[in-house]
């Protein structure tokens, strides 16, 4: 009888331990944001994710805004084709954690898990860059190339082709480039190192920002497609 009582007295403690373990498991699962690799067939490659949106469907498809070949839309969605894979991956991570504010891209980046972000980055980096026709025929000021050389070239390279310190800017939409410089200027975008872009952008006036966007948008991508 004493042995039975001892077993009965210990039973609540064991049950309590099981309940705590169960709660910990539930909480851990609830906190997951799909950072583990997905087994869904639509997440099998970066191209599938870009075209289909992965498990989320067309709402999260990159091609909806950035084009089937990553060419951008010529307005507010930039060219992704041919950009450095590390840069593309970093931007996805920055969208996901809020360092680069953008409501739509935040939702897309947060939906994809870390493995899917890497696959998408590799997919677009491997595509040949293509330029869209300029959306405007506005005249570029004669002083703009010198302005670019002075303010931007050290990090973004001759003709905006990019360096290890900065991504390519050439053949991006003028509106997009202007918008990004304005965001840097206001510290709305702040996902670079040592706030270099904040310092550069705050030295530019509205007209100079517009001119830089126009100038870079008309520089062909490198390497240029064979049919151009």
Description:
It contains eleven helices and no strands. The protein is an all-alpha fold. Among the domains are: 41-125, Cytochrome c-like domain (Cytochrome Bc1 Complex, Chain D, domain 2, Orthogonal Bundle), CATH 1.10.760.10; 144-217, Cytochrome c-like domain (Cytochrome Bc1 Complex, Chain D, domain 2). Helix 7 packs across helix 11 and helix 9 packs antiparallel against helix 11.
Mean of pLDDT: 81
Largest sheet: none
> What Rg do the Cα atoms give?
24 Å
The rounded distance between the terminal residues' Cα atoms is: 93 Å
Shape field: globular
**The CATH homologous superfamily of the domain at 41-125:** Cytochrome c-like domain
Residue runs with pLDDT of under 50 for 5 or more positions: 1-13, 15-38, 224-228
Q: What is the CATH third-level topology name of the domain at 41-125?
A: Cytochrome Bc1 Complex, Chain D, domain 2
**How are helices and strands ordered from N to C?**
HHHHHHHHHHH
Helices and strands: which structural class? mainly alpha
Q: What's the level 1 CATH class of the domain at 41-125?
A: Mainly Alpha
Q: Which percent range describes the beta-strand content?
A: under 5%
SS element count, helices: 11
Helix content: 40-55%
What's the architecture of the domain at 41-125 in CATH terms?
Answer: Orthogonal Bundle
Quaternary arrangement of the chains shown? single chain
| Beta-strand segment tally | 0
């Amino acid at each position: 009888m004493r042995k039975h009582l001892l077993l009965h007295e210990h039973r609540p403690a064991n049950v309590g331990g099981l309940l705590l373990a169960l709660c910990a498991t539930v909480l851990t699962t609830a906190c997951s944001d799909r950072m583990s690799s997905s087994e869904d067939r639509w997440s099998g490659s970066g191209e599938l994710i870009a075209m289909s949106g992965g498990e989320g469907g067309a709402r999260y498809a990159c091609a909806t805004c950035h084009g089937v070949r990553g060419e951008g839309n010529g307005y507010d969605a930039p060219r992704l084709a041919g950009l450095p894979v590390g840069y593309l991956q970093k931007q996805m991570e920055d969208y996901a954690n809020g360092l680069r504010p953008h409501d739509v891209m935040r939702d897309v980046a947060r939906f994809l898990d870390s493995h899917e972000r890497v696959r998408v980055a590799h997919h677009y980096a491997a595509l040949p860059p293509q330029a869209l026709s300029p959306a405007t025929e506005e005249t570029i000021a004669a002083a703009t190339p010198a302005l670019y050389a002075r303010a931007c070239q050290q990090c973004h390279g001759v003709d905006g082709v990019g360096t290890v310190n900065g991504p390519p800017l050439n053949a991006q939409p003028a509106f997009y480039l202007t918008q990004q410089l304005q965001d840097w200027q206001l510290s709305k975008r702040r996902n670079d190192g040592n706030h270099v872009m904040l310092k550069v952008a705050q030295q530019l006036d509205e007209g100079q920002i517009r001119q830089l966007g126009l100038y870079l948008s008309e520089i062909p991508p490198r390497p240029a497609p064979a049919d151009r």
